[in-house]
Amino acid sequence: MTAKIIDGKKAAAELMESIQKQVKNRSDMGLLQPCLATILVGENPASQSYVKAKHKACASLGIRSVGIHLPADVTQKELEKKVNDMAADASVHGILIQLPLPDGIDEEKVLQCVPIEKDVDGFHPVNIGRLAQKNRNPIFVPCTPSGIIYLLEKEIESIEGKNAVVLGRSNIVGMPVSLLLVRQNATVTICHSRTIDLPEKVRGADIVIAAIGRANFVKANWIRPGAVVIDVGVNRVDDPMRKRGYRLVGDVDFGAAKEVASAITPVPGGVGPLTIAMLMRNALRAATLVDGV
Amino acid sequence: MTAKIIDGKKAAAELMESIQKQVKNRSDMGLLQPCLATILVGENPASQSYVKAKHKACASLGIRSVGIHLPADVTQKELEKKVNDMAADASVHGILIQLPLPDGIDEEKVLQCVPIEKDVDGFHPVNIGRLAQKNRNPIFVPCTPSGIIYLLEKEIESIEGKNAVVLGRSNIVGMPVSLLLVRQNATVTICHSRTIDLPEKVRGADIVIAAIGRANFVKANWIRPGAVVIDVGVNRVDDPMRKRGYRLVGDVDFGAAKEVASAITPVPGGVGPLTIAMLMRNALRAATLVDGV
User: Does position A292 have pLDDT exceeding 90, yes or no?
Assistant: First the structure.
């Protein structure tokens, strides 16, 4: 079997187009332009490029964006004040704190300054708490996990009853996607660095979510024939053939795994583009929460 | 193999004795007597008996308790006001809202009125959110899940790397115990009513947590020889031999399962007594949070 390669770029582009239309509709109706504020602390190049990409996506959809860049030595108090200012600003609908924050900053305290109605990243502890509980609904759900579910729903008729194995239990991907899969009625196994006999666990999976950050770690012979594989890893491996000296690969040994899986996401071009599309969707939703349209 | 029967009553009694000593030490040092407030709404007989048992446990340990009983037709606003009053009362260290609340009451809104430092039941969404996240620490953890981990830690040298299968994903037991087991580095599979081939899932478990509320549902031949089985179910089955006409049984077919497991909790006398002991521990802790001793 050769797997269907899930085209995350295309799925994201369709989603972005639909968001763009909705933004335009709002504008035609005379409603406020959605506005996303990003808060970036320090000079981490990866964080800088992520924030830049988010602003670019906003611009392409007609969403206003405001970027706040603070030095790495900002104090907890100064940072919280900035977030509180954005929280109080009615023209700002969504607030995104680019993580990780520098050492010495209490990340949770900063995240708690974001009103849950503006928490477009879904990382406020109340939104995460609601995600973990039945009959409670988070206002926003973290973007990469939402993107994963979005892709799965396009590939699989029903997630209900499927055996999902999640590799990784990070705050940003592994844990929230596990909670989302439970909400979708999958049977979910949460695996991590202390799991014993990981290949055996993965062999039981109809759905494999790999989010551990280890290049080509998941082998083809771990994958049950016909499983759907979502690869969230983005890892650099040396590649002297490339001008920049490296290329990006996922957590799954893609070349071999695609001969076993029924569908698989590539890296890059799989989950990545969905993350930003989900953020845009959340930013739009933050505006609709305010005016109820 | 005949399983060790885990004596929850004895474990709870030891814990209660240690709490009692600590309460007395506080009193000898002239510190405030710990105080638990319970809020009960309506006339549910099970809820009434649970609340009564909690007050009795407080009395036996020297913990002060205050019981507030509101009619089933209390409004959201009146109920929140009562909780807010207790929240503002410095002589009250812990607040317990007896669940479930009547239909028409927004449970989460009521729970959010409890300051997280007084949330001895651990159900505030921020405490649950922290439980679901790495590097975040809930101030309080729900009592039955804590009791389960307490018993497991006595039976198993290390939970790390063990395969734990949790049956049930309730807000009160299944989900929080799953999150606790992940924090303890177990590989956790969350099963529920939509799980396909539950026996096969249970057969993979070194640790089985049954919390589904179905009498004798888990069969002995589902259990891997040597597994540790924690039975959280409390179900009534007709028993004409008993004066009251019923007896209590767990979710596990105890008589047969104890011939396969290495250790198993009985019902009653297993997890139940630990729940109340953990609540007492939390009430004491709530007082120590205030005065730092």
Answer: no
Q: Kindly report the nearest CA distance between residue B175 and chain A, in angstroms.
A: 7
Kindly give the residue spans of alpha helices, DSSP state H, lying in A62-102: 76-88
Q: What is the pLDDT of residue B1?
A: 72
Beta carbons of B171 and A133 less than 8 Å apart: yes
| Residue B251 falls in the annotated catalytic set | no
Tokens of A28: 């035609």
Torsional sign, CA A268, A273, A276, A282 = negative
Domains of chain A: 30-116 (3.40.50.10860), 143-272 (3.40.50.720)
> How much is the ipTM here?
0.95
Q: Of all helices (H) and strands (E), which one includes residue B12?
A: helix B8-28
Q: Is A134 within 8 Å of B187 when comparing Cβ atoms? A: no
> What pairs with residue A96 in β-bridges?
A38
> Which residues share a beta bridge with B236?
B248
Residue of B119, B121, B206, B251 marked catalytic: B121
> Taking CA atoms, what residue in A is nearest to B136?
A108
Distance of CA B274 to the CA centre of its chain: 7
Query: Counting Cβ atoms within 10 Å, is residue A107 exposed (0-12), middle (13-18) or buried (19+)?
Result: middle
The CA distance from B291 to B173, in Å, is 30
Joined tokens for residue A41: 């602390």
Residue A291 confidence (pLDDT): 85
pLDDT of residue B136: 92
Q: How much of chain A, in percent, has pLDDT values that exceed 70?
A: 100
Residue of B nearest to A109 (CA): B136
Q: Give the Cα separation of B99 and B44 in Å (integer).
A: 10
**CB within 8 Å of chain B, chain A residues 158-197:** 160-161, 163, 169-171, 175, 178-179, 182, 185, 187-192, 194-196
Q: How far apart are CA B268 and CA B259, in angstroms?
A: 18
pLDDT at B292 over 90: no
- Can you point out the beta strands (E) in chain B? 4-5, 35-41, 64-70, 94-97, 163-167, 187-191, 207-210, 228-231, 235-238, 246-249, 263-264
Measured between beta carbons, the chain A residues lying within 8 angstroms of B196 are 161, 163, 187
CA distances to B61, B157, B171 from B141, rounded to whole Å, are: 21, 22, 12
What letter represents residue B243's amino acid? K
Q: Residues B149-188: pLDDT tens digits?
A: 999 999 999 999 999 999 999 999 999 999 999 999 999 9
Q: Which residues of B touch A202 (CB under 8 A)?
A: none
Facing A126 at nearest CB: one of B126, B196, B201: B126
Q: Does B133 qualify as catalytic in the annotation?
A: no
